[in-house]
DUF1499 domain-containing protein (Rhodobacter ferrooxidans), 150 residues
Amino acid sequence: MKRLMSTLLILALIALVAAFAAVRLLPTDAAAWHTDPTTAVKPDKPNNWLVAANGDAAPVQLTLPPDQAAAKLDAIALASPGTTKLAGEGLFTTYITRSKLWGFPDFTSVKLTPTATGSELTLFARARFGYSDMGVNQARVENWLAQLQP
């Protein structure tokens, strides 16, 4: 019986290590996650946050021209722990942010559109795995927006 329990424990640990490795090592199709927030369809799961017309929050109006806002937002995003650029550049970029412990990937697509008074910012943050993210994507977006505002 003791040997069976030891074997089961070892198998459970192997499964845990395999799951950990899969989350970190599965390839990411950048084209599939580089989603235009202005046309994104909000999923039914609560593991996302959409800042766009008909999203969770309205698009953000900025007084900065789009290129300046994009440069500032890029610096803010890349200074966030675990965040790197996945796809795009300039006015339409997607970032990947990995959680510290498991390395779960979250994707945040941002798009800036010129307006008469500056630019309009839309964002779409979502988790790749799971059902709930405990508000992590919303918190990240709100943190970026707070840093972006003058």
Summary: DSSP finds four helices and six strands in the chain.
